[in-house]
Amino acid sequence: MKKILFIAFPVFALVFLFGCSKDDDSPGSDKGKFKVSDFTILDVSTKGGNGQLDIDYAQKNTTSMNYDSDSEGYFRIKWKVKTTDGNSFQTDRLLATELDAGATESLNAIIEFTASKTIDVATLTYEVYRDK
């Protein structure tokens, strides 16, 4: 029995050591061919009431490459809006996780705010960024 354990332990250690691959998400890895500028946000429309602002929009892949978040990493969009008294509200969402070259996908976000406030839709802004 000791002989089997003596042989089995090093074999399992070698299998574990060489059988597990390292996920390399560090800068300089294969991820990152896509940039923020490779996506365009289009057709933004809003409707609001009862403490929330619904935002409908489209994300377009402006490149000639298919985008897949598993290989390229995730991109997010942060929406911000102010109320007429100057308070700021925001929400943060993932963009599409797969998008073919030149394709567009419709998306939606909701910003919740204090129901007694009035949203100033003219202050609505967004920022697209790479998720870390």
UniProtKB/TrEMBL annotation:
It comes from the Bacteria. This is Lipocalin-like domain-containing protein.
